[in-house]
């Protein structure tokens, strides 16, 4: 998630601290909660994503779904083992990072790996939709999946690079400046006032004229002091946003473009999983309808004659309660239902129950994906876009960093909820 918004971190307040070197206030309760939350995300995310990566890496199959999940697990693992501890240090020292290179590196990692994870989740949604809803099209191949991942990597790197250029440890700080302005010209500065002291009465001006000229002379030679605010680039050591490389207009435009990337990923996930769920429900309904059609019955005709016994087996789609017919000429015709009505009804009821359970499981899976995605990214999007405002900046940070939840829960959603994955993990752990 991008951090371009000034109001999110109280950047104006940080700039004030950076430029004036004010002492830091003691940690608040919200900050201790944030530290504990980030530490929990770090530990659980590293363990979960490491297990997922090892299990899928050992499978070594050539399925697109495996490639996407491996990429997602690797990205989330890097985020949990590098970005979250980095963020914890940044927050502990109030964004004081000292080195400009580390500042830009941190912002690059944060604003490239986090959106890339969201991009891969969208790619997984597309892959599952094509695999289930259009299985015969063979649109998503392994080569195309690799090309998609490479394109998403490039897009995420560009996003991170632009954001990193908006941050640094140098700030354009306002510094008071005193300017001395002398009103006068060389002509007046060289003017000989002794002309007014001449002994010739007819050359000496009147007192009124003398007072006027003297007052004018004093005003012209008066030195006035004017205070101005000027900006100078100052090293602060605080990793916060600045306008040294990119102006405010470019940063504002790019902020909404960056938010658009997350919103696009969110829409893709919600829409495709909704279509996928409806497709699964419809297919199961059709399959159940086909199974509940009238089951063919077997007709057996047996003739007893002097020349022996002959048996004829026919098939009919008519359902009947009649088991046999005895004819007077020694013939007997039997109708033997393939599936009797009570058994058929019990089977239909069992299939409905199984389908209902499968539908609920599918719905729960897709619902969890959508809810986690919303909880992870929606608070940061709303805060960054100034749609909601939280007066307490420390409390705002807690909601803003909810996007780390996505990196922690992805292993659970895409792997641990899969029975095949759990079986593979048991095999690895047993070894």
UniProtKB/TrEMBL annotation:
Residues 48-414 form the G-protein coupled receptors family 1 profile domain. InterPro entries: GPCR_Rhodpsn, GPCR_Rhodpsn_7TM. PROSITE patterns: G_PROTEIN_RECEP_F1_1 (PS00237), G_PROTEIN_RECEP_F1_2 (PS50262). CDD domains: 7tm_classA_rhodopsin-like (cd00637). Signal peptide: none annotated. It is found in: Membrane. The chain crosses the membrane at residues 32-55, 67-93, 105-126, 147-170, 259-281, 363-386, 398-417. One of its GO terms (molecular function) is G protein-coupled receptor activity. Keywords: G-protein coupled receptor, Membrane, Receptor, Transducer, Transmembrane, Transmembrane helix. One of its GO terms (cellular component) is membrane. It is a multi-pass membrane protein. Belongs to the G-protein coupled receptor 1 family. PANTHER family: ECDYSTEROIDS_DOPAMINE RECEPTOR-RELATED, G-PROTEIN COUPLED RECEPTOR. This is Orexin receptor type 2-like.
């Amino acid at each position: 998630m991008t951090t371009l918004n000034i109001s999110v971190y109280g950047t104006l307040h940080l700039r004030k601290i950076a430029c004036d070197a004010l002492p830091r206030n003691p940690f608040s309760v919200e900050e201790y909660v944030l530290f504990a939350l980030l530490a929990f995300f770090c530990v659980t995310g590293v363990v979960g994503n490491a297990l997922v990566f090892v299990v899928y890496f050992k499978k070594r199959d050539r399925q697109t779904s495996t490639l996407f999940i491996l990429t997602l697990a690797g990205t989330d693992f890097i985020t949990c083992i590098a970005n979250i501890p980095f963020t914890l240090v940044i927050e502990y020292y109030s964004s004081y990072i000292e080195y400009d290179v580390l500042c830009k590196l941190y912002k690059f990692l944060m604003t490239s790996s986090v959106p890339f994870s969201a991009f891969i989740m969208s790619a997984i949604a597309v892959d599952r939709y094509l695999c289930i809803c259009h299985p015969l099209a063979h649109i998503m191949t392994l080569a195309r999946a690799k090309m998609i991942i490479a394109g998403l990597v490039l897009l995420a790197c560009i996003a991170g690079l632009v954001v990193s250029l908006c941050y640094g440890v140098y700030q354009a700080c306002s510094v008071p400046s005193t300017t001395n302005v002398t009103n006068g010209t060389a002509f007046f500065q060289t003017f000989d006032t002794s002309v007014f002291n001449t002994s010739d009465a007819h050359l000496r001006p009147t007192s009124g004229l003398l007072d006027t000229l003297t007052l004018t002379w004093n005003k012209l030679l008066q030195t006035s002091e004017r205070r101005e605010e000027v900006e100078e680039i100052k090293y602060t050591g605080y990793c916060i946003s600045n306008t040294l490389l990119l102006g405010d207009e470019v940063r504002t435009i790019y902020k909404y473009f960056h938010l658009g990337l997350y919103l696009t990923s969110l829409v893709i996930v919600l829409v495709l999983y909704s279509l996928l769920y409806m497709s699964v429900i419809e297919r199961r309904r059709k399959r159940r309808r086909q199974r509940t059609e009238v089951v063919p019955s077997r007709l057996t005709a047996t003739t007893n004659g002097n020349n022996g016994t002959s048996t004829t087996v026919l098939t009919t789609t008519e359902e009947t309660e009649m088991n046999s017919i005895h004819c007077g000429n020694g013939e007997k015709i039997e109708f033997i239902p393939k599936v009797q009505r009570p058994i058929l009804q019990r089977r239909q009821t069992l299939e409905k129950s199984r389908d209902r359970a499968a539908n609920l499981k599918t719905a729960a899976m897709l619902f969890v994906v959508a809810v986690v995605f919303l909880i992870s990214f929606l608070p940061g999007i709303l805060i960054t876009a100034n749609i909601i405002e939280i007066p307490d900046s420390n409390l705002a940070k807690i909601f803003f960093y909810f996007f780390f939840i996505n990196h922690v829960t992805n292993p659970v959603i895409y792997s641990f909820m899969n029975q095949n994955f759990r079986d593979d993990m048991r095999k690895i752990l047993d070894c």
